[in-house]
Amino acid sequence: MNERVREILERLNPWWRAPEARVTGLKPFRRHEFSRIGERIQRFGEPRLRAVFLEGLRQVGKTTLAKQVLDELLREGLGGSQVALALAEDHRLTGTLTLQDVLEAWTPFLDPTRPALLVLDEVHRLKDDSGSGDMNWARQVKSLVERCDAGEFQVRILATGSAAGVIRDGAGILVGRQDVVHLEPLSLEEFVDLRGHPKEELQGELDAYLSVGGFPEIALTTSIPESLERIRQATRSALAADVPEVRAPDAIQQLFSILMDQSGEELNEKKLASAIGVQVDSVRRWMQKMEEVHLVHRVQRWNTSELREIRGRPKVFGTAAGIVAGFGRTADPLGDPRLVGRLVEAAVLGHLRPFAQFRHARVRCGQKKSPRGQTLGEVDFVMDRPGELLLIEVTSGTANLEDKCAFVAAECKSLASRRRDDSVRGAVVYRGSVRIDGEVSCLPLHAFLLRLSRPERLETLASLVEGDERQEQ
Questions:
Q1: What is the pTM of this model?
Q2: Going along 129-252, which residue ranges are E strands?
Q3: Torsion angle of alpha carbons 255, 259, 265, 268, nearest 10°?
Q4: Is the CB of residue 273 less than 8 Å from the CB of residue 282?
Q5: Per-residue pLDDT for 146 more than 80?
Q6: pLDDT band at 131, cuts 50/70/90?
Q7: CA-to-CA distance for 10 and 381, rounded, in angstroms?
Q8: Does 48 score more than 80 pLDDT?
Q9: Where is average pLDDT lowest: 199-213, 274-288, 458-472?
Q10: What separation in angstroms does the CA of 224 have from each of 29, 135, 211, 320, 332?
Q11: Rounded CA gap, 351 and 346, in Å?
Q12: Dihedral angle computed from the Cα positions of residues 453, 457, 463 and 466, in that order, rounded to the nearest 10 degrees
């Protein structure tokens, strides 16, 4: 192993030589996923679970969360020799670090008979040590797991990565031996907790969340224009690193800017290709990559016919309201009514997705059309799972709320009649603080987002919209 690599790894892991050392620079704030990941990592008595893969958008806190888990184990007395941290995207190690390098540097200190934790940040950036291709990093991890199975080590692996498709494909090599955890951008509750503002300022915090929320480091910046510029820089860096296309880097950036300007609209690949002067296949390929690295979400149309769902054009949303705001072409995102609507939709979708994943539900877009194909009306989101259906209309203000409630109520009644059950529910989520009673549940945006910030507390689709929203204040 290169001695320079060894020296860098030893500097990253001062606890190898000084057991009292701790991870520096960590803030007290912890993401909600901290406990979930900690519980999985500490199942040292379960030999089948060897690795936890933490994937998600860049800058949502994956590296910090992994370091917090490592630091917690140090504080609980696991021992400095039994934990190792390797940052594959560290500029000093990029393109040079292999898993064998980490083991060679670590094993002089490691007690192989005791439980241990290895944190591999941006694991898919490990150097290909055999020339065997893109999944080489996964084969390196698998080799370590097999050595643990053979009794050579008792190591648990916590690996992070921003390329979801790559991480999930690689983790598949360890089928039955791993758990994949997705880390979303900050929820509203996490955003408020991180900033430490009193609950009385919740409306102001909601406005800040819609403008810049989602990214822990940026959430603490007081200047909105500065925050938006940092979001743009981070996103462009992610596009350059994770959606590589040497021949058309400007076209990729242009495509993403258009998608954010049209967040929440139908995806028309032909029009997009024509607008930026590339082939449709290029747009499709770049779109797939953007989705894999969590820069955009495609949401399919809901329909009672699965075939029509597949054929229908999906809508495309920015992953976080802050990203949509960052590309909104204004220094004051909340001063543009059209942009506010897109921000509200992105925030709602960002909170619906974790619940859907946790409770095995689907998130779809709703649309009602006439027999001639004319759009008659639209419900923003439809959530369904066996035995339940929930229609959600999202609005950026309080205008015409009674009409919107009546429309959603009529849709619920129509669907319930066709399904011959009463499991169809509806809700209108609006940006505002006044209490409104309607034909369906009416929830202020802040109350709805706070309720969804803890999806594990919600068991049914009805629990998303029923009950007294004042408990979320």
A1: 0.90
A2: 155-161, 178-183
A3: 10
A4: yes
A5: yes
A6: low
A7: 50
A8: no
A9: 458-472
A10: 22, 40, 7, 16, 8
A11: 9
A12: -70
What the block records as the tokens of 274 is 């024509």
CA 195 to CA 227: how far, in whole Å? 14
Q: To the nearest whole number, what is the mean pLDDT of the chain?
A: 88
Long-range contacts of 300-305 (CB under 8 A, 24+ apart): 300/364, 300/365, 301/364, 301/365, 301/366, 301/367, 302/362, 302/364, 302/365, 302/366, 302/382, 302/384, 304/418
Tokens matching residue 32: 């909600």
Residue boundaries of the structural domains of the chain: 3-183, 188-472
Pairing mode, if any, of strands 388-395 and 381-385? antiparallel
Phi and psi for 318 in degrees, rounded to 5? Answer: -70, 145
Class of the CATH domain delimited by 3-183: alpha beta
Residue the block writes with tokens 């940040």: 121
Q: Are 175 and 254 in contact (CB under 8 A)?
A: no
Q: In angstroms, rounded to a whole number, what is the distance separating the alpha carbons of residues 183 and 195?
A: 19
Which pLDDT tens digit goes with each residue over 294-312?
999 999 988 765 545 556 7
